[in-house]
Write a structure and sequence with these properties.
506 residues; Nucleotidyltransferase, domain 5; seven-stranded mixed beta sheet; six-stranded mixed beta sheet; 19 strands
Length: 506
Protein backbone atom coordinates (compact mmCIF):
# COMPACT_ATOMS: atom_id res chain seq x y z
CA UNK A 1 0.00 0.00 0.00
CA UNK A 2 1.22 3.49 -0.86
CA UNK A 3 2.22 5.38 2.22
CA UNK A 4 0.63 8.67 3.09
CA UNK A 5 0.57 10.88 6.13
CA UNK A 6 -1.87 13.50 7.31
CA UNK A 7 -0.97 16.86 5.88
CA UNK A 8 0.96 15.42 2.92
CA UNK A 9 0.55 17.42 -0.27
CA UNK A 10 -1.87 15.39 -2.42
CA UNK A 11 0.54 15.78 -5.34
CA UNK A 12 4.25 15.10 -4.77
CA UNK A 13 6.72 16.27 -7.44
CA UNK A 14 10.21 15.08 -8.31
CA UNK A 15 12.44 15.69 -11.35
CA UNK A 16 14.11 13.09 -13.53
CA UNK A 17 17.11 14.34 -15.49
CA UNK A 18 17.36 11.66 -18.16
CA UNK A 19 20.40 11.99 -20.41
CA UNK A 20 20.75 9.62 -23.32
CA UNK A 21 23.56 9.32 -25.82
CA UNK A 22 21.72 11.53 -28.32
CA UNK A 23 19.59 13.84 -26.19
CA UNK A 24 18.42 14.80 -22.74
CA UNK A 25 15.11 15.54 -21.05
CA UNK A 26 14.02 17.01 -17.78
CA UNK A 27 10.75 15.35 -16.79
CA UNK A 28 8.57 16.18 -13.83
CA UNK A 29 7.14 13.13 -12.13
CA UNK A 30 4.12 13.59 -9.90
CA UNK A 31 2.33 11.17 -7.60
CA UNK A 32 -1.32 12.12 -7.52
CA UNK A 33 -2.47 10.64 -4.25
CA UNK A 34 -6.14 11.28 -4.88
CA UNK A 35 -6.11 9.58 -8.30
CA UNK A 36 -3.58 6.94 -7.27
CA UNK A 37 -1.58 7.57 -10.45
CA UNK A 38 1.86 8.66 -11.58
CA UNK A 39 1.88 11.60 -13.97
CA UNK A 40 4.70 12.78 -16.24
CA UNK A 41 5.34 16.12 -17.87
CA UNK A 42 8.35 16.77 -20.08
CA UNK A 43 9.45 20.31 -19.30
CA UNK A 44 12.69 20.56 -21.26
CA UNK A 45 14.34 18.64 -24.09
CA UNK A 46 17.75 19.21 -25.64
CA UNK A 47 20.27 17.61 -27.96
CA UNK A 48 23.37 15.81 -26.73
CA UNK A 49 25.84 15.99 -29.59
CA UNK A 50 29.52 15.05 -29.27
CA UNK A 51 32.16 17.59 -30.13
CA UNK A 52 35.39 16.65 -31.90
CA UNK A 53 38.39 18.78 -30.97
CA UNK A 54 41.89 18.14 -32.29
CA UNK A 55 41.01 14.57 -33.22
CA UNK A 56 39.32 13.62 -29.93
CA UNK A 57 35.57 13.12 -29.53
CA UNK A 58 34.20 14.69 -26.33
CA UNK A 59 30.94 15.04 -24.46
CA UNK A 60 30.03 18.69 -23.85
CA UNK A 61 29.41 18.06 -20.16
CA UNK A 62 29.17 21.74 -19.19
CA UNK A 63 26.51 22.31 -21.82
CA UNK A 64 24.61 19.30 -20.44
CA UNK A 65 24.79 20.79 -16.94
CA UNK A 66 23.63 24.15 -18.29
CA UNK A 67 20.66 22.52 -20.01
CA UNK A 68 19.89 20.59 -16.83
CA UNK A 69 19.70 23.85 -14.90
CA UNK A 70 17.46 25.35 -17.59
CA UNK A 71 15.18 22.35 -17.28
CA UNK A 72 14.96 22.67 -13.50
CA UNK A 73 14.02 26.35 -13.82
CA UNK A 74 11.35 25.47 -16.40
CA UNK A 75 9.96 22.77 -14.13
CA UNK A 76 9.59 25.29 -11.33
CA UNK A 77 8.01 27.85 -13.65
CA UNK A 78 5.32 25.39 -14.73
CA UNK A 79 4.52 24.05 -11.24
CA UNK A 80 0.98 24.51 -9.93
CA UNK A 81 0.84 27.40 -7.43
CA UNK A 82 2.05 26.40 -4.00
CA UNK A 83 3.63 23.11 -5.10
CA UNK A 84 7.34 22.34 -4.72
CA UNK A 85 9.94 19.95 -6.11
CA UNK A 86 10.94 17.54 -3.35
CA UNK A 87 13.82 15.74 -5.04
CA UNK A 88 15.68 15.14 -8.28
CA UNK A 89 17.77 12.34 -9.77
CA UNK A 90 20.05 11.86 -12.76
CA UNK A 91 20.51 8.90 -15.10
CA UNK A 92 22.78 8.73 -18.16
CA UNK A 93 24.48 6.32 -20.54
CA UNK A 94 27.24 4.14 -19.09
CA UNK A 95 31.05 3.79 -19.03
CA UNK A 96 32.22 7.41 -19.56
CA UNK A 97 33.89 9.50 -16.88
CA UNK A 98 35.43 12.82 -15.95
CA UNK A 99 38.48 13.63 -13.87
CA UNK A 100 38.80 16.22 -11.11
CA UNK A 101 41.98 17.71 -9.65
CA UNK A 102 42.70 17.99 -5.92
CA UNK A 103 40.66 21.22 -5.76
CA UNK A 104 37.65 19.58 -7.36
CA UNK A 105 38.12 21.27 -10.73
CA UNK A 106 37.23 19.44 -13.95
CA UNK A 107 40.26 18.35 -15.95
CA UNK A 108 38.82 18.73 -19.43
CA UNK A 109 35.61 17.56 -21.05
CA UNK A 110 34.99 13.80 -20.72
CA UNK A 111 35.89 11.76 -23.79
CA UNK A 112 33.11 10.01 -25.72
CA UNK A 113 33.06 6.20 -25.70
CA UNK A 114 33.00 6.26 -29.52
CA UNK A 115 36.38 8.01 -29.61
CA UNK A 116 39.08 6.08 -31.45
CA UNK A 117 41.27 5.68 -28.34
CA UNK A 118 39.58 2.35 -27.62
CA UNK A 119 40.67 0.78 -30.92
CA UNK A 120 42.44 -2.55 -30.37
CA UNK A 121 42.08 -2.40 -26.59
CA UNK A 122 39.84 -5.48 -26.24
CA UNK A 123 42.56 -7.81 -27.54
CA UNK A 124 45.26 -5.98 -25.58
CA UNK A 125 43.33 -6.27 -22.32
CA UNK A 126 42.61 -9.93 -23.01
CA UNK A 127 46.34 -10.52 -23.49
CA UNK A 128 47.19 -8.58 -20.32
CA UNK A 129 44.64 -10.23 -18.02
CA UNK A 130 43.99 -13.54 -19.75
CA UNK A 131 41.08 -14.54 -21.96
CA UNK A 132 37.76 -14.24 -20.13
CA UNK A 133 39.31 -13.13 -16.83
CA UNK A 134 37.75 -9.66 -16.82
CA UNK A 135 34.32 -11.17 -17.50
CA UNK A 136 34.62 -13.76 -14.74
CA UNK A 137 35.79 -11.15 -12.21
CA UNK A 138 33.41 -8.31 -13.07
CA UNK A 139 30.58 -10.00 -14.97
CA UNK A 140 30.98 -7.43 -17.75
CA UNK A 141 31.56 -8.52 -21.34
CA UNK A 142 34.76 -7.39 -23.06
CA UNK A 143 33.23 -4.58 -25.11
CA UNK A 144 35.23 -2.06 -27.09
CA UNK A 145 33.58 0.87 -25.25
CA UNK A 146 34.24 -0.25 -21.64
CA UNK A 147 35.88 2.11 -19.17
CA UNK A 148 38.79 -0.35 -18.91
CA UNK A 149 39.45 0.00 -22.63
CA UNK A 150 39.16 3.78 -22.45
CA UNK A 151 41.65 4.00 -19.60
CA UNK A 152 44.01 1.51 -21.21
CA UNK A 153 43.95 3.41 -24.50
CA UNK A 154 44.37 6.80 -22.84
CA UNK A 155 47.35 5.65 -20.75
CA UNK A 156 48.91 3.93 -23.75
CA UNK A 157 48.77 7.18 -25.72
CA UNK A 158 49.87 9.31 -22.76
CA UNK A 159 51.38 7.64 -19.65
CA UNK A 160 50.76 10.92 -17.77
CA UNK A 161 47.04 10.93 -18.58
CA UNK A 162 46.03 10.57 -14.91
CA UNK A 163 48.70 12.90 -13.56
CA UNK A 164 47.09 15.66 -11.53
CA UNK A 165 43.83 13.75 -11.17
CA UNK A 166 42.45 13.26 -7.68
CA UNK A 167 38.97 11.91 -8.46
CA UNK A 168 37.29 9.84 -11.20
CA UNK A 169 33.54 10.29 -11.52
CA UNK A 170 31.25 8.60 -14.02
CA UNK A 171 28.93 10.87 -16.05
CA UNK A 172 25.91 10.92 -13.67
CA UNK A 173 28.17 11.02 -10.61
CA UNK A 174 29.95 14.03 -12.12
CA UNK A 175 26.68 15.87 -12.66
CA UNK A 176 25.57 14.95 -9.13
CA UNK A 177 28.85 16.47 -7.91
CA UNK A 178 28.11 19.69 -9.82
CA UNK A 179 24.72 19.81 -8.08
CA UNK A 180 25.69 18.84 -4.53
CA UNK A 181 29.47 19.04 -4.21
CA UNK A 182 29.44 15.40 -3.03
CA UNK A 183 31.52 12.66 -4.63
CA UNK A 184 30.22 9.12 -4.84
CA UNK A 185 29.95 6.20 -7.24
CA UNK A 186 26.37 5.01 -7.68
CA UNK A 187 26.43 1.22 -7.97
CA UNK A 188 24.65 0.66 -11.29
CA UNK A 189 26.85 3.13 -13.18
CA UNK A 190 29.98 1.80 -11.46
CA UNK A 191 28.96 -1.67 -12.63
CA UNK A 192 29.29 -0.65 -16.28
CA UNK A 193 32.99 0.10 -15.90
CA UNK A 194 34.37 -3.47 -15.83
CA UNK A 195 36.24 -2.52 -12.66
CA UNK A 196 33.66 -3.45 -10.00
CA UNK A 197 33.67 -6.98 -8.61
CA UNK A 198 30.74 -9.03 -9.86
CA UNK A 199 27.82 -8.90 -7.45
CA UNK A 200 29.79 -6.76 -4.99
CA UNK A 201 30.17 -3.10 -4.04
CA UNK A 202 33.97 -3.20 -4.07
CA UNK A 203 36.41 -2.09 -6.75
CA UNK A 204 38.65 -4.87 -8.01
CA UNK A 205 42.04 -3.68 -6.78
CA UNK A 206 44.00 -6.06 -9.04
CA UNK A 207 42.26 -4.68 -12.14
CA UNK A 208 42.98 -1.12 -11.04
CA UNK A 209 46.63 -1.93 -10.43
CA UNK A 210 47.15 -3.65 -13.78
CA UNK A 211 45.43 -0.78 -15.59
CA UNK A 212 47.62 1.74 -13.81
CA UNK A 213 44.70 3.46 -12.06
CA UNK A 214 45.51 4.76 -8.54
CA UNK A 215 42.88 3.39 -6.12
CA UNK A 216 42.33 6.80 -4.54
CA UNK A 217 40.67 7.99 -7.76
CA UNK A 218 37.73 5.66 -7.19
CA UNK A 219 34.88 6.72 -4.91
CA UNK A 220 32.83 4.81 -2.35
CA UNK A 221 30.08 2.79 -4.03
CA UNK A 222 26.57 3.69 -2.87
CA UNK A 223 23.27 1.96 -3.61
CA UNK A 224 20.44 3.54 -5.59
CA UNK A 225 17.67 4.74 -3.34
CA UNK A 226 20.18 6.69 -1.23
CA UNK A 227 19.62 10.40 -0.68
CA UNK A 228 22.99 11.87 -1.67
CA UNK A 229 22.36 15.27 -0.10
CA UNK A 230 20.90 18.73 -0.69
CA UNK A 231 21.78 21.09 -3.52
CA UNK A 232 24.74 23.39 -3.15
CA UNK A 233 23.48 26.83 -1.99
CA UNK A 234 24.74 28.52 -5.16
CA UNK A 235 23.04 25.93 -7.36
CA UNK A 236 19.80 26.24 -5.42
CA UNK A 237 19.88 30.04 -5.91
CA UNK A 238 20.66 29.68 -9.62
CA UNK A 239 17.76 27.33 -10.38
CA UNK A 240 15.27 28.72 -7.85
CA UNK A 241 14.89 25.69 -5.60
CA UNK A 242 15.00 25.47 -1.84
CA UNK A 243 18.53 24.63 -0.61
CA UNK A 244 16.91 21.71 1.24
CA UNK A 245 15.94 20.03 -2.05
CA UNK A 246 17.46 16.57 -2.10
CA UNK A 247 19.37 14.81 -4.87
CA UNK A 248 18.69 11.08 -4.82
CA UNK A 249 20.91 8.38 -6.19
CA UNK A 250 18.66 6.62 -8.66
CA UNK A 251 19.83 3.71 -10.86
CA UNK A 252 21.98 6.16 -12.77
CA UNK A 253 22.74 3.83 -15.64
CA UNK A 254 19.70 4.37 -17.82
CA UNK A 255 19.18 0.66 -18.53
CA UNK A 256 18.77 -0.09 -14.83
CA UNK A 257 16.35 2.80 -14.41
CA UNK A 258 14.31 1.47 -17.33
CA UNK A 259 14.21 -1.97 -15.71
CA UNK A 260 12.52 -0.55 -12.61
CA UNK A 261 9.58 0.78 -14.62
CA UNK A 262 8.81 -2.23 -16.82
CA UNK A 263 5.14 -2.60 -15.81
CA UNK A 264 5.11 -6.38 -15.42
CA UNK A 265 2.92 -7.38 -12.51
CA UNK A 266 2.39 -11.09 -13.28
CA UNK A 267 5.21 -12.26 -11.02
CA UNK A 268 6.55 -14.46 -13.86
CA UNK A 269 10.05 -14.17 -15.38
CA UNK A 270 10.14 -11.51 -18.07
CA UNK A 271 12.66 -10.14 -20.52
CA UNK A 272 12.67 -6.60 -21.82
CA UNK A 273 14.33 -4.60 -24.57
CA UNK A 274 15.14 -1.05 -23.54
CA UNK A 275 15.42 0.46 -26.98
CA UNK A 276 17.03 3.85 -27.49
CA UNK A 277 20.35 4.68 -29.13
CA UNK A 278 21.34 1.27 -27.79
CA UNK A 279 18.97 -1.65 -27.50
CA UNK A 280 19.56 -3.58 -24.29
CA UNK A 281 17.92 -6.98 -24.02
CA UNK A 282 17.83 -7.82 -20.33
CA UNK A 283 16.27 -9.84 -17.56
CA UNK A 284 16.38 -9.42 -13.78
CA UNK A 285 18.14 -12.14 -11.79
CA UNK A 286 19.25 -12.54 -8.19
CA UNK A 287 22.94 -13.10 -8.98
CA UNK A 288 25.46 -12.68 -11.83
CA UNK A 289 25.82 -15.38 -14.48
CA UNK A 290 29.56 -15.87 -14.96
CA UNK A 291 29.86 -19.12 -16.91
CA UNK A 292 31.54 -19.57 -20.29
CA UNK A 293 28.21 -20.02 -22.04
CA UNK A 294 27.19 -16.51 -20.98
CA UNK A 295 30.56 -15.01 -21.94
CA UNK A 296 30.72 -16.65 -25.34
CA UNK A 297 27.07 -15.75 -25.92
CA UNK A 298 27.96 -12.07 -25.59
CA UNK A 299 26.06 -11.48 -22.34
CA UNK A 300 27.03 -9.02 -19.67
CA UNK A 301 26.03 -8.59 -16.03
CA UNK A 302 25.28 -5.21 -14.56
CA UNK A 303 24.39 -4.26 -11.04
CA UNK A 304 20.67 -3.66 -10.78
CA UNK A 305 18.80 -1.69 -8.17
CA UNK A 306 17.70 -3.08 -4.82
CA UNK A 307 19.84 -6.21 -4.89
CA UNK A 308 19.08 -7.36 -8.43
CA UNK A 309 21.43 -8.29 -11.25
CA UNK A 310 20.67 -7.54 -14.88
CA UNK A 311 21.83 -10.10 -17.41
CA UNK A 312 21.86 -8.29 -20.71
CA UNK A 313 22.97 -8.21 -24.30
CA UNK A 314 24.12 -4.91 -25.82
CA UNK A 315 22.70 -4.40 -29.30
CA UNK A 316 23.32 -1.43 -31.59
CA UNK A 317 19.78 -0.04 -31.37
CA UNK A 318 18.21 3.03 -32.94
CA UNK A 319 21.70 4.48 -33.41
CA UNK A 320 21.73 3.23 -37.00
CA UNK A 321 18.37 4.90 -37.74
CA UNK A 322 19.47 8.09 -35.99
CA UNK A 323 22.69 8.24 -38.00
CA UNK A 324 20.87 7.60 -41.28
CA UNK A 325 18.45 10.41 -40.44
CA UNK A 326 21.29 12.75 -39.48
CA UNK A 327 23.13 11.99 -42.74
CA UNK A 328 20.05 12.61 -44.86
CA UNK A 329 19.43 15.93 -43.13
CA UNK A 330 22.79 17.42 -44.08
CA UNK A 331 21.16 19.33 -46.92
CA UNK A 332 18.88 21.14 -44.47
CA UNK A 333 15.76 19.03 -45.04
CA UNK A 334 14.38 17.81 -41.70
CA UNK A 335 12.59 14.48 -41.43
CA UNK A 336 10.41 13.13 -38.65
CA UNK A 337 10.90 9.56 -37.45
CA UNK A 338 7.37 8.82 -38.62
CA UNK A 339 8.51 9.69 -42.16
CA UNK A 340 11.23 7.05 -41.93
CA UNK A 341 8.74 4.49 -40.62
CA UNK A 342 6.35 5.28 -43.47
CA UNK A 343 9.12 4.76 -46.04
CA UNK A 344 10.13 1.46 -44.43
CA UNK A 345 6.57 0.16 -44.14
CA UNK A 346 6.25 0.20 -47.92
CA UNK A 347 9.55 -1.66 -48.51
CA UNK A 348 9.54 -5.44 -49.13
CA UNK A 349 10.25 -8.11 -46.49
CA UNK A 350 13.73 -9.59 -46.15
CA UNK A 351 15.30 -7.86 -49.14
CA UNK A 352 18.49 -6.78 -47.36
CA UNK A 353 19.84 -7.74 -43.93
CA UNK A 354 22.91 -6.76 -41.90
CA UNK A 355 24.69 -7.70 -38.68
CA UNK A 356 23.83 -4.66 -36.54
CA UNK A 357 26.69 -5.52 -34.16
CA UNK A 358 29.39 -5.17 -36.82
CA UNK A 359 32.00 -2.60 -35.71
CA UNK A 360 31.74 -0.71 -39.01
CA UNK A 361 28.39 0.66 -37.77
CA UNK A 362 29.71 1.87 -34.41
CA UNK A 363 31.02 5.34 -35.28
CA UNK A 364 29.40 8.48 -36.74
CA UNK A 365 29.45 9.02 -40.49
CA UNK A 366 27.75 8.02 -43.72
CA UNK A 367 25.60 5.25 -42.24
CA UNK A 368 23.46 4.75 -45.36
CA UNK A 369 26.62 4.35 -47.43
CA UNK A 370 28.10 1.90 -44.91
CA UNK A 371 24.94 -0.21 -44.97
CA UNK A 372 25.08 -0.38 -48.76
CA UNK A 373 28.80 -1.20 -48.66
CA UNK A 374 28.17 -3.95 -46.10
CA UNK A 375 25.43 -5.52 -48.22
CA UNK A 376 27.72 -5.37 -51.25
CA UNK A 377 30.52 -7.17 -49.39
CA UNK A 378 28.13 -9.82 -48.06
CA UNK A 379 26.61 -10.27 -51.53
CA UNK A 380 23.24 -9.16 -50.18
CA UNK A 381 20.88 -7.21 -52.45
CA UNK A 382 21.35 -3.48 -52.00
CA UNK A 383 18.52 -1.77 -50.10
CA UNK A 384 16.21 0.10 -52.43
CA UNK A 385 16.06 3.76 -51.47
CA UNK A 386 15.75 5.25 -48.03
CA UNK A 387 12.78 3.08 -47.14
CA UNK A 388 14.77 -0.04 -48.00
CA UNK A 389 17.66 1.09 -45.79
CA UNK A 390 15.42 1.73 -42.77
CA UNK A 391 13.56 -1.55 -43.36
CA UNK A 392 16.91 -3.35 -43.52
CA UNK A 393 17.93 -1.87 -40.15
CA UNK A 394 14.62 -2.61 -38.39
CA UNK A 395 14.33 -6.20 -39.64
CA UNK A 396 17.96 -6.86 -38.77
CA UNK A 397 17.38 -5.46 -35.27
CA UNK A 398 14.36 -7.72 -34.79
CA UNK A 399 16.42 -10.73 -35.94
CA UNK A 400 19.14 -9.84 -33.44
CA UNK A 401 16.50 -9.51 -30.72
CA UNK A 402 15.25 -13.04 -31.41
CA UNK A 403 18.72 -14.55 -31.57
CA UNK A 404 19.80 -12.91 -28.31
CA UNK A 405 16.53 -13.79 -26.57
CA UNK A 406 16.86 -17.47 -27.47
CA UNK A 407 20.46 -17.49 -26.23
CA UNK A 408 19.36 -15.82 -22.99
CA UNK A 409 16.77 -18.52 -22.41
CA UNK A 410 19.45 -21.18 -22.89
CA UNK A 411 21.93 -19.44 -20.56
CA UNK A 412 19.40 -18.85 -17.77
CA UNK A 413 17.30 -21.99 -18.21
CA UNK A 414 14.22 -19.76 -18.09
CA UNK A 415 11.38 -19.33 -20.55
CA UNK A 416 10.23 -15.74 -20.76
CA UNK A 417 6.48 -15.68 -21.13
CA UNK A 418 6.59 -11.89 -21.36
CA UNK A 419 8.73 -9.86 -23.76
CA UNK A 420 8.52 -6.11 -23.25
CA UNK A 421 9.80 -3.41 -25.59
CA UNK A 422 10.21 -0.10 -23.77
CA UNK A 423 11.92 3.22 -24.28
CA UNK A 424 11.93 5.49 -27.31
CA UNK A 425 12.03 2.53 -29.69
CA UNK A 426 8.57 1.52 -28.49
CA UNK A 427 7.23 4.55 -30.40
CA UNK A 428 8.40 2.95 -33.64
CA UNK A 429 5.29 0.89 -34.35
CA UNK A 430 6.91 -0.94 -37.27
CA UNK A 431 9.80 -2.10 -35.06
CA UNK A 432 7.30 -3.32 -32.45
CA UNK A 433 5.37 -5.37 -35.00
CA UNK A 434 8.53 -6.70 -36.67
CA UNK A 435 9.83 -7.78 -33.25
CA UNK A 436 6.62 -9.71 -32.57
CA UNK A 437 6.61 -11.22 -36.08
CA UNK A 438 10.26 -12.31 -36.15
CA UNK A 439 10.44 -13.38 -32.49
CA UNK A 440 7.22 -15.33 -32.98
CA UNK A 441 5.82 -14.28 -29.64
CA UNK A 442 3.61 -11.49 -28.27
CA UNK A 443 5.39 -8.23 -27.50
CA UNK A 444 4.14 -5.83 -24.84
CA UNK A 445 5.09 -2.18 -25.07
CA UNK A 446 5.09 0.01 -22.03
CA UNK A 447 5.58 3.74 -21.64
CA UNK A 448 8.10 5.37 -23.98
CA UNK A 449 9.59 7.22 -21.00
CA UNK A 450 10.42 4.06 -19.06
CA UNK A 451 13.89 5.27 -18.10
CA UNK A 452 12.57 8.50 -16.62
CA UNK A 453 9.79 6.55 -14.89
CA UNK A 454 12.31 4.23 -13.22
CA UNK A 455 14.32 7.24 -12.14
CA UNK A 456 11.16 8.80 -10.67
CA UNK A 457 9.98 5.56 -9.06
CA UNK A 458 13.31 5.18 -7.25
CA UNK A 459 13.07 8.74 -5.94
CA UNK A 460 9.62 8.04 -4.55
CA UNK A 461 10.94 4.89 -2.88
CA UNK A 462 13.82 6.91 -1.39
CA UNK A 463 11.33 9.50 -0.12
CA UNK A 464 9.04 6.82 1.35
CA UNK A 465 6.11 7.53 -0.99
CA UNK A 466 6.29 3.91 -2.18
CA UNK A 467 7.36 1.11 0.13
CA UNK A 468 9.02 -0.96 -2.60
CA UNK A 469 9.75 -1.17 -6.30
CA UNK A 470 7.03 -3.81 -6.65
CA UNK A 471 4.57 -1.21 -5.43
CA UNK A 472 6.03 1.37 -7.82
CA UNK A 473 5.62 -1.05 -10.76
CA UNK A 474 1.98 -1.53 -9.86
CA UNK A 475 1.57 2.25 -9.94
CA UNK A 476 3.23 2.41 -13.38
CA UNK A 477 0.95 -0.35 -14.70
CA UNK A 478 -2.12 1.48 -13.39
CA UNK A 479 -1.00 4.86 -14.73
CA UNK A 480 0.07 4.12 -18.30
CA UNK A 481 -1.32 2.25 -21.27
CA UNK A 482 0.17 -1.09 -22.26
CA UNK A 483 -0.06 -2.18 -25.91
CA UNK A 484 0.17 -5.72 -27.26
CA UNK A 485 1.61 -6.74 -30.64
CA UNK A 486 0.62 -10.21 -31.81
CA UNK A 487 2.80 -12.13 -34.33
CA UNK A 488 1.63 -12.08 -37.95
CA UNK A 489 3.24 -12.49 -41.39
CA UNK A 490 4.49 -15.86 -40.14
CA UNK A 491 6.01 -17.22 -43.38
CA UNK A 492 7.75 -13.98 -44.39
CA UNK A 493 9.07 -13.48 -40.85
CA UNK A 494 10.38 -17.06 -40.69
CA UNK A 495 12.11 -16.73 -44.07
CA UNK A 496 13.69 -13.43 -43.03
CA UNK A 497 15.06 -14.84 -39.78
CA UNK A 498 16.34 -17.95 -41.56
CA UNK A 499 18.18 -15.79 -44.08
CA UNK A 500 19.64 -13.55 -41.35
CA UNK A 501 20.69 -16.58 -39.26
CA UNK A 502 22.43 -18.24 -42.21
CA UNK A 503 24.59 -15.17 -42.70
CA UNK A 504 25.03 -13.69 -39.21
CA UNK A 505 23.59 -16.08 -36.59
CA UNK A 506 25.52 -18.31 -34.25
Amino acid sequence: MVRSTEGTNPVDHVLAIDLGASGGRVIRGSWNLAAGKLELQEVHRFDNEPVEVVGTLHWDILRLFHETQKGIREAIRTLPPGDTIRCLGIDTWGVDFGLLDRKGRLLGNPVHYRDKRTEGQVSKLSARFGEGVLFRRTGVQEFWFNTTGQLSGALEADPNFLQGAETLLFSPDLLNYFLTGRKAAERTIAGTSQMLRAGQVDWDQDILEKLGVPPHLMQNVLEPGTLLGPLLPEVAREVGLSPDTQVALVPSHDTESAALAVPSTSGKPFAFISCGTWALLATELNAPVLGEEARLGGFSNEAGAFGTNLLLSNIMGMWLVQECKRWWERDGQKWEHRDLVEWATGAPWGASLIDVKDPMFSTPGDMPGRIEEYCRKKKMPLPQGRGGIIRCVLESLACEFRSSLEKMEMVTGKQFGELWLVGGGAQNLLLCQLTADICGRPVFTGPAETTALGNIACQFVALGTFSSIAEARQAVAKSFEVNLYVPSNHELAAETFLSWSANYGG
